[in-house]
Amino acid sequence: MALGRRVRPLVALDWGTSSLRGARLAGDGSVAEERAFPLGILTVPPGGFPAVFAAHFGDWMDAPGALCLIVGMAGSQQGWLEAPYCRCPAGFDELAQWLAWVEPGRIAIVPGLSFEADGVPDVMRGEETQVFGALRLLGAPDALIVLPGTHSKWVQVRSGRIESFATLMTGEFYALLRRHSILARTLPAEDAEPHDEPNVDLNDNAFDAGVALALRGASLLHTAFSVRSLALFKRLQPAQATSYLSGLVIGEELRSRALASGSVVVVVGDTRLTGRYARALAQCGAVTHCLGAQATWRGLHEIAARIAA
Amino acid sequence: MALGRRVRPLVALDWGTSSLRGARLAGDGSVAEERAFPLGILTVPPGGFPAVFAAHFGDWMDAPGALCLIVGMAGSQQGWLEAPYCRCPAGFDELAQWLAWVEPGRIAIVPGLSFEADGVPDVMRGEETQVFGALRLLGAPDALIVLPGTHSKWVQVRSGRIESFATLMTGEFYALLRRHSILARTLPAEDAEPHDEPNVDLNDNAFDAGVALALRGASLLHTAFSVRSLALFKRLQPAQATSYLSGLVIGEELRSRALASGSVVVVVGDTRLTGRYARALAQCGAVTHCLGAQATWRGLHEIAARIAA
Fold it and tell me: What pLDDT is recorded for position B194?
């Protein structure tokens, strides 16, 4: 991952609601070391951010000229320091310009982005950096990028800037239906990890059937009930039902994006989830490129390069 | 509510998942007395249905020639006696023909209905009797009827028979989002009764705004997130947020029905909920007739008339 430019040693942090991940990047952008802690911002007491940071990343900051850039909910109202949302369209330059400096020249939080459509705002925090990192990895200035998850983000990039985006609560709807709805009675006992349930193998046929029904056009309000009715008539086995439900919610997400056949979609995330999206996108006639979640470190490296400049 | 025909004294029961309601009807169909108990089928131990019935309605059954007809989940696999689903199209005659007799000639359970579309079955239990009762109250052989609730039913009736129907989990989605999702953090402390929250006054403007956004065409997966983003920018007050969310889910339900402007929709249910639907349907350009939930007793009276005949 060598780059032409050299930048300061970078401590790159992704500090979210439920976890804290960090990477130490060399001046050329290569990852020298990574650390992860279950220390999401909700676990940090008021005023406790400097101490948590020093305890877990203080040694990395001892490197001469070290710079720390942080993405994620650490920049929210409940975080370390609020980094107000930057309005779209926005690119690397805007992010670098609107950093919220915790310690001038040394520790900064990357702002999230906001976008307004139909009189309603939408927001992201952290995904913007993943998107820009993905763009660099792709070497493309234009792309339609999806970051699937609890709250999926669909991001339209043109000329290297995020032009528009939309949040879809796909993973959360899956978890709500799977855990708390009447459908939970039809489904097998819950796996430890919700949404993508990585320890449960996907039943491809059931997943495809869920996607296919969702793509036919009915609302999830209606199609979700089919988990129950199909089970009632013994046409859906409990072991297939979570895959089928996953297909229904992901299919609803894709249908709502109204993709033209042949659309190219870049899916950024962990392999299990990007695999599901690629499978569902194929039913829409879309062409998919999958990228791992390492895009965040690359994005922070690019922002750091702009600060050094 | 006098009718031309005279039928046997009728003990009409609506025995659902969470409640047991009964009415004693005179031979002319008029309601002489009503009772309600928190004795849904989930509270009845295996084999306990005859005893619960005798304890709460035995006195009514002492009337000479008394007939008991039961609708609802008492006819499900977990109920008193399974009454298999009758396939659509179906009318009063099919319901009367396929009664499941607990005690021949004396106590019977009305079958639910099933309907298949796109290779997926849908089911109802109890609503079919409400629909037929509503038809009699309307004096119309054709109608588009919606019974809003935890699981809303949209029912197309032609020539006095239910031709097709669809279930939408609107009320349940509302409750899931309101109680268990990330949006719950934005919403005020929960009222004792979910979904329609009858003790909370509707904020008309917020409700209308939710309906309007949903009707514009984006999926609820996306529009639901606006509860959070609008609150983040202080453009939605907590006191308005439940009304706004209610508008989003009901609006999604209506959009998915693709109603032509000028459509006539009959809404059957309690006043609070039918009022919300009428308000939302007006935004779709639909014409609404509202009817109270008493339609069940009228429907059972009509079935009883066919047995007596």
Answer: 45
CA–CA gap between residue A159 and residue A129 (Å, rounded)? 16
Q: Is the peptide bond before A121 cis (omega within 30 degrees of 0)?
A: no
- In whole angstroms, give the CA distance from residue A6 to residue A20: 26
pLDDT in tens, B94-136: 999 999 999 999 999 999 999 999 899 999 999 999 999 998 8
Suggest the residue from B221, B228, B234, B259 to mutate for an interface test with chain A (most A CBs closer than 10 A): B221
What residues in chain A have per-residue pLDDT under 50?
1-4, 192-195, 198-199, 309
Same CATH topology for A10-126+296-308 and A170-291? Answer: yes
Q: What percent of chain B has pLDDT over 90?
A: 79
Q: How many Å apart are CA B256 and CA A63, to the nearest integer?
A: 58
CB pair distance less than 8 Å for A226 and B123: no
Residues β-bridged to residue A117: A120
Residues of B in contact with A123 (CB under 8 A): 229, 232
> Smallest CA–CA separation between A201 and chain B, in Å?
24
Confidence check: pLDDT of B154 > 90: yes
Nearest beta carbon to residue A218 from set B170, B233, B256: B256
Q: Print burial letters for A71-96: b (CB count within 10 Å at least 16), e (below 16).
A: bbbbbbeebbbebebbebbbbbebbb
Which of A76, A152, A169 is the best mutation test for B, with the most CBs of B within 10 A?
A169
Asked if A13 and A70 touch (Cβ cutoff 8 Å), the reply is yes
Number of Cβ pairs closer than 8 Å across A and B?
115
Task: For chain A, give every domain's residue range.
Answer: 10-126+296-308, 170-291
Q: With DSSP H G I counted as helix, E B as strand and the rest as coil, what are the percentages for chain A, rounded to 5?
A: 40, 25, 35
**How many other CB atoms are there within 10 angstroms of residue A37's CB atom?**
15
Domain B170-291 - what CATH class?
alpha beta
For residue B219, which residues of chain A lie inside 8 Å, CB to CB?
168, 219-220, 252-253, 255-256
Instruction: For residue B103, give Cα distances in angstroms to A277, B7, B59, B68.
Output: 54, 19, 17, 9
How much is the pLDDT for B4? 47
Q: How far apart are CA A114 and CA A123, in angstroms?
A: 4
Would you call A164 an interface residue with chain B, using a CB distance cutoff of 8 Å?
no
- Structure confidence by residue, pLDDT tens digits, B137-146: 888 889 999 9
Residue in chain B nearest A150 by alpha carbon: B182
Segment A145-200, tens digit of pLDDT: 999 999 999 999 999 999 999 999 999 999 999 999 999 988 887 654 444 554 45
Superfamily classification of domain A10-126+296-308 = 2-keto-3-deoxy-galactonokinase, substrate binding domain (3.30.420.300)
Measured between beta carbons, the chain B residues lying within 8 angstroms of A122 are 225-226, 229
pLDDT band at B3 (very low <50, low <70, confident <90, very high): very low
Give B-chain residues touching A235 at CB under 8 angstroms.
121
Q: Are A252 and B223 in contact (CB under 8 A)?
A: no
A234 and chain B in contact, CB less than 8 A: no
Does residue A255 contact residue A285 with C-beta atoms inside 8 Å? no
pLDDT at B186 over 90: no
Contact A253 B180 (CB under 8 A): no
Assign A163 to helix, strand or coil.
Answer: strand
